[in-house]
Automatic annotation (TrEMBL):
<keyword id="KW-0131">Cell cycle</keyword>
<comment type="pathway">
    <text>Cell wall biogenesis; peptidoglycan biosynthesis.</text>
</comment>
<dbReference type="InterPro" id="IPR001182">
    <property type="entry name" value="FtsW/RodA"/>
</dbReference>
<dbReference type="GO" id="GO:0032153">
    <property type="term" value="C:cell division site"/>
</dbReference>
<dbReference type="GO" id="GO:0005886">
    <property type="term" value="C:plasma membrane"/>
</dbReference>
<comment type="similarity">
    <text>Belongs to the SEDS family. FtsW subfamily.</text>
</comment>
<keyword id="KW-0573">Peptidoglycan synthesis</keyword>
<feature type="transmembrane region" description="Helical">
    <location>
        <begin position="273"/>
        <end position="293"/>
    </location>
</feature>
<dbReference type="GO" id="GO:0051301">
    <property type="term" value="P:cell division"/>
</dbReference>
<keyword id="KW-0812">Transmembrane</keyword>
<keyword id="KW-1003">Cell membrane</keyword>
<keyword id="KW-0808">Transferase</keyword>
<feature type="transmembrane region" description="Helical">
    <location>
        <begin position="103"/>
        <end position="128"/>
    </location>
</feature>
<dbReference type="GO" id="GO:0071555">
    <property type="term" value="P:cell wall organization"/>
</dbReference>
<protein>
    <recommendedName>
        <fullName>Probable peptidoglycan glycosyltransferase FtsW</fullName>
        <ecNumber>2.4.99.28</ecNumber>
    </recommendedName>
</protein>
<feature type="transmembrane region" description="Helical">
    <location>
        <begin position="189"/>
        <end position="208"/>
    </location>
</feature>
<comment type="function">
    <text>Peptidoglycan polymerase that is essential for cell division.</text>
</comment>
Length: 370
């Protein structure tokens, strides 16, 4: 059913812009020392992030005006082929950067194919589940298995980069969609336990992952190596108190927390602006997740409902992991805070996904009927 197109969800749109504005401001504050020392310009990261933010807004407006049903059937197959080719090129042909083959491109125009893979897996699984129907999804081999194979291909390529954190996010979002699509609870428990076992094996096989895990269990046992980032992050959050030291007055960003504008920017926010600001940011993410779930529930179309749930789940899982890592409730891992952390590729494709979510919001009404 085509339905009559209405306005976008303005609350969601405003919330996205608020988070984006906070992100640009805090990237500038957190990155000033590194920009000055390494690039001779304290505004270096601000300029780059602002350019990516403008591009992201353009992409979000573009995808918000493309009917979400465009990303189905043949189009999703083309999208999938394109994504796999990019990942294969990045993993096997591009030189490693900081020990990982996560980036594709040169100079300013570097992208992470794994960020595209997050969106693709949501669109693919939503399309597959809708075609198979809820009854077929209760069967492991006829329902779940094809989706698990595609998910496994992408997870395997991303681990090869290596990037275990992104592979875990994709696997988690995939399981959420499969469960919402009608999979049996016992199948989901089996998949969850299998995932835990595979994660343990992946940690044990790589010494640096094992060091991160033992550093999480007791950061102060190796406070200059495996526990260093966790301890410095806690120092930053603790020093901020209720209202913070003041915008721009962080001490931890002066090389105590490496690349403070990236994965640990939330710690800098806590130090400079205090608990009140961190609470507001968590509240903004909660609003985003609430509006996304609301759109998913009210969308009459099964495909649209699952896409909305999947995109919302990416934001929910990734932001939750970042909050837990920064507050030392999880081992240190390279997960950015969506819309806040520095990173053009992550920002661009996050905005693209949110544009699709905004488009879905145009086809729902108060009673959920097109």
């Amino acid at each position: 059913m085509k339905g009559k197109k209405g306005p976008i969800d303005f609350v969601l749109f405003a919330d996205i812009l608020i988070l984006l504005s906070i992100g640009i401001s805090m990237v500038f504050s957190a990155s000033m020392p590194e920009g000055e020392i390494y690039y001779g310009n304290p505004h270096y990261f601000l300029i780059r992030q602002s350019i990516w933010a403008v591009l992201g807004i353009i992409v979000m407006l573009f995808t918000s005006n493309i009917d979400y049903r465009f990303w189905r059937n043949k189009n999703i197959l083309v999208f999938g082929f394109f994504t796999v080719v990019l990942m294969l090129i990045g993993v096997f042909f591009f030189p490693p950067v900081k020990g990982a083959r996560r980036w594709l491109g040169f100079g300013f125009a570097k992208i992470q194919p794994s960020e595209i893979a997050k969106i693709f897996i949501v669109l693919f699984l939503a399309n597959m589940i809708e075609k198979k129907g809820q009854d077929t999804m209760k069967s492991f081999f006829r329902g779940l298995f094809p989706g698990l194979v595609i998910m496994g291909i992408f997870v395997g390529l991303i681990i090869k980069e290596p990037n275990m954190s992104t592979s875990v996010i994709i696997a988690t979002v995939s399981l959420i969609l499969l469960f919402a699509g009608g999979a049996k609870i016992r199948h989901m428990l089996l998949l969850f336990l299998s995932g835990v076992v595979l994660a343990i094996i992946a940690i044990i096989r790589e010494p640096y992952r094992m060091r991160r895990f033992t550093g999480f269990l007791n950061p102060w046992a190796d406070k200059l190596e495996s526990g260093y980032q966790a301890i410095q992050s806690l120092y930053a959050l603790g020093a901020g108190g209720l209202f913070g030291r003041g915008l721009g007055l962080s001490k931890q960003k002066f090389y105590y927390i490496p690349e403070a504008q990236n994965d640990f920017i939330f710690a800098i926010i806590g130090e400079e602006l205090g608990f009140i600001a961190t609470f507001i940011i968590i509240l903004c993410f909660s609003v985003l997740i609430w509006r996304g779930i609301r759109i998913s529930i009210k969308c009459k179309d099964k495909y649209g409902s699952l896409v909305a749930l999947g995109i919302t789940s990416i934001i929910a899982v990734q932001s939750s992991v970042n909050f837990l890592v920064v507050s030392s409730f999880m081992p240190v891992t390279g997960v950015t805070l969506p819309l806040i952390s520095y990173g053009g590729s992550s920002l661009l494709f996050t905005m693209a996904g949110l544009g699709i979510l905004l488009n879905i919001s145009r086809y729902i009404t108060k009673d959920g009927v097109d």
